[in-house]
């Protein structure tokens, strides 16, 4: 579902406010940024219908009404995770359907200095693997198990790619795998199990 320009603009300004809070340690500098952001918020709220934004997110997530703290365009605590779909080709050339997002994480997502917090790494992989688990025609499923391996720091302030795909399906169970790469180097890997609740899967006679 698309998000209005006003809602997305307000989300972006709120992200800027969050960023100011973690970036500015001097109250005078913080106050200056707060005044600017407040003025922008007020100006947009004067007439939401005329608000325009550059490069709007085009949510392609399989979750129709995405309000999650992982990828919603109207939830400012979410990383700006615009999930897309592709079939791996060329270099990989295995024809596997994949969900992926290219994302830049600013300072509010920091764990160790200069690196993305491990919980945020897990959040993004959970969301992208969850999206991939809902490839067309498959019923809703929940994360049952998620195992992370942190191979290297995931950098802040530069584009990283979060990818996920189905490795195999057994009845109600979907085994998933994915990773985060920075400049083509894997920084974190995830393996997980998604399960459809019994009532959402096939009729009783064909349950697995
Ligand atoms: C509108 C936008 C929406 C956006 C949604 C975004 C979602 C983002 C991701 C999430 O946050 S999901 C939320 C976090 N996860 C949960 O809340 C799930 C909590 N768990 C459950 O609700 C239930 O455990 C679940 C529905 C997943 C499964 O319940 P069941 O009672 O149907 O499972 P059951 O224990 O019977 O296990 C099913 C099968 O898997 C097997 N199994 C369980 N754990 C396993 C494991 N770890 N490895 C291998 N097999 C396993 C289990 O043995 C069994 O095998 P059999 O069918 O052969 O008997």
From TrEMBL:
Residues 114-184 form the Thioesterase domain. It is a peripheral membrane protein. It holds the Pfam family 4HBT. Its EC number is 3.1.2.2. It is found in: Cell projection, Ruffle membrane; Cytoplasm; Membrane. Belongs to the THEM4/THEM5 thioesterase family. This is Acyl-coenzyme A thioesterase THEM4.
